Amino acid sequence: GAVVSQHPSRVICKSGTSVKIECRSLDFQATTMFWYRQFPKKSLMLMATSNEGSKATYEQGVEKDKFLINHASLTLSTLTVTSAHPEDSSFYICSAVTSALTDTQYFGPGTRLTVL
Amino acid sequence: KQEVTQIPAALSVPEGENLVLNCSFTDSAIYNLQWFRQDPGKGLTSLLLIQSSQREQTSGRLNASLDKSSGRSTLYIAASQPGDSATYLCAVKSVTSGTYKYIFGTGTRLKVLA
Q1: Which residue from A30, A41, B101, B110 could staple onto A25, CB 3.0 to 4.6 Å apart?
Q2: Residue A47 contacts by C-beta under 8 Å, 6 or more apart in sequence?
Q3: A70-81 b/e with 16+ CB inside 10 Å = b?
Q4: How many other C-beta atoms can be found within 10 angstroms of the C-beta atom of residue B35?
Q5: Tell me, what's the pLDDT at A103?
Q6: How many whole angstroms from its chain centre is CA B50?
């Protein structure tokens, strides 16, 4: 089956530093990847939609300059949290799809970010 | 704006019970609806995907139905087991301003007692 990986699985950083999270589709080409954020005991909130070779589409309220998304290839998207602060601490999950309309979305295992 | 709600928010049942989880959405113009399972601190596992033209999907002890016109879906779990304990999320795929996206429900935390 389709596998999506995320790296790192956990990261702890100091306030003010930048953190990069990678999302890879291991055995398929992902035309679109999605980035979500999840607070404890809450559902997933879509942050942005990332299409290969084009700029990401951010959801309302998500700062594009703070959460930089790059989708340079059909198998890799990265999310960089710039100048991280404690309120950015969260569980970040990516997903990937192979078709714009009908395919199942496959999720990565998530990245736990803790900003001290 | 599409909103997805799940009821109940939490559920605790003895092993062996059949149970129903509910998902409702406000905009019936969806492409599909997907049910997921999430274990604590983990990513999501897809359980069932129902296309907008379908009424139900089955996989093992799981059955999901979709009534698009009324904006509802149910996930039926037969003969529940302790291993079914997890958070169950539904998500609808719809288009907003020309961009398709997945909107997640609030989740149902299920605990099956041995």
Answers
A1: A30
A2: A35, A36, A37, A58, A59, A62, A67, A79
A3: ebeebbebbbeb
A4: 24
A5: 66
A6: 10
Chain B: give the shortest CA distance to residue A15, in Å: 23
Q: Which pLDDT does position A99 carry in this prediction? A: 67
Smallest CA–CA distance from B52 into chain A, residue = A102
pLDDT tens profile A28-44: 888 889 999 998 878 89
Q: Which amino acid would we find at residue B51?
A: Q
Contacts of B32 in chain A (CB under 8 A): 102
- Of the candidates B21, B14, B43, B16, the one whose C-alpha atom is nearest the C-alpha of residue A96 is B43
Confidence of residue B38 (pLDDT cuts 50, 70, 90): very high
Q: Is the pLDDT of residue B14 over 70?
A: yes
Residues 6+ apart with CB under 8 A from B110: B10, B11, B12, B13, B19, B21, B77, B80, B84, B85, B86, B87, B88
